[in-house]
Amino acid sequence: xxxxxxSILSFLLLYKYSALFILSxxxxxxxxxxxxxxxxxxxxxxxxxxxxxxxxxxxxSVAGTLGDSFGYWLAKKYGTRIINFxxxxxxxxxxxxxxxxxxxxxxxxxxxxxxxxSLGLIINLLAGLAPVKFKRFLAFDFIGNILNVLxxxxxxxxxxxxxxxxxxxxxxxxxxxxxxIIVFIIFQVRRKRRNRIIDKKSGQKA
Amino acid sequence: xxxxxxxxxxxxxxxIALFALIVILIGWKTLESKRLTAWPTKYLAAEQWRLPQGxxxxxxxxxxVNDLSAIQYWMxxxxxxxxxxxxxxxxxxxxxxxxxxxxxxxxxxxSREERLNAxxxxxxxxxxxxxYLTTPKP
Lengths: 206, 138
Description:
Chain A is an all-alpha fold and 206 residues long. Helix content of chain A is 85%, strand content 0%. Chain A has one domain (3-205). The longest helix of chain B is centred in the first third of the chain and has 31 residues, at 3-33. Chain B has helices at residues 3-33, 39-44, 52-60, 77-83, 90-94, 107-113, 118-134.
């Protein structure tokens, strides 16, 4: 376990529900802290009777939703200005694509992204930039947070004191997945570039 | 909230949440009835195969003398008292802890403040808890 996780766990044990609220809130909007590990460990503490189930469920879900909403609000208020600052000449194409995608299937994307840790943070910001209404965002975000917290509590409850072994395994799987996604993106970019060159050459010949 | 807003934004998420809750509850009850709720522990912790009583400890949620290796530096004395079901002043008197913040104090913090070797403190805590758990109670 790294020192950051160790400090977080000590903080959680010392300040219990206030710490759970603060950590669940902060994890969701700016700092990519290991939010899933925090909720999983809370599930372990519930199994040992150190935390109570209902207060933990309510606090973790509400704090998570508040944090997500804050991220959404930040993107809504300052997102356009930041984009204009970085891309003065032309609006980036990826934003149009994301906007189109989120308009089509915002609900499912928001709910699923709650299970992925730091990807949720990016989706909050993108939802703030895209025309996703706040009420819609809030509804799906709250449902996603409750489901995620319930899932991790159940996992933590099952694992008990052996959660550290599972956390290591989850970390390893996460690292492998991230590496696989990066390799996939690199291959996709290379393929697109190659196709563009081929198209250009065939256009010149014609 | 009018009817259209409810239908548009809240109806489906609520239906999905309700459905998920029912699935989780039924699934949990089924697993409980078939005594399968400890299966991830079996696969993820190989020593569980050698320590079947460890599973029993998890099921009753109070840790036993077999779980002493689970004690870590980041744990507080309050947490150890709770999970091993110790009297609140047992570790304080056994380890002669005079810090006023006891039991809301982590082992790491205490060893740093008292300039103790953390590994030795951990061993002492394990020995004290083991002694308490193995001593027959009146």
